[in-house]
Amino acid sequence: MKKLIIPIMALAIVSSCNIKKEEKGELPEVDVDVSADSGELPEYDVNWADIDVGTTTKTVKVPKPMIVMEEEEVEVPVIDFDMPGEDKEQRTIMVEAEVSDSEHNLDIQEIRATENRLYVISKLEKLDTDLGEQKMRIQDQVELNAPDLDIKHIIVGEKADNILNNQYKYVNSMNDLDDKIKNAKVIYSDS
Length: 191
Prior knowledge:
- This protein is mostly beta strands.
- It has helices spanning 2-15, 179-182, and strands at 18-21, 44-47, 78-80, 89-114, 117-146, 150-156, 169-171, 185-189.
- Strands 3, 4, 5, 6, 7 and 8 form a six-stranded mixed sheet that branches. Strands 1-2 form a two-stranded antiparallel ribbon.
- A hairpin with a 2-residue loop joins strand 4 and strand 5 (117-146).
């Protein structure tokens, strides 16, 4: 690729200027006894392209900063349960969503358990504050002391069109949950 670009650039430089011969050139005269008069090279007047560099004002689309979450100390629920014959570990279960247009609230409402799976059911609620063209990332979390279990997130609410939100299952209401999830044991409730 480099070998192709260099000849193209050389051709562009040569073709972008105007060369005019100003004076005829002549070769030096040479005697047989090897004495020589000085020669004269031709003179050229080169008119190079006039290039100015500056700035202009244009209207362009620029990325807007996202509303950033600030760290703050808050009370976080801790769920501690034992399963016979299983070692438990502490970990954070977090759910998050990115929303636009209006401010939203996201809360973990329930955690349900069946065999080796936990269903984390969160509620996404639209609030009245208008965000304009801004986006906002919201989250909620609980601490869990339990054996290593498979975790499935379900959010009750309207899914915002963002790739971050594709990692969760969205339903319109608690009535839309599968029977398997509806019949699972509630091990945590926010109410």
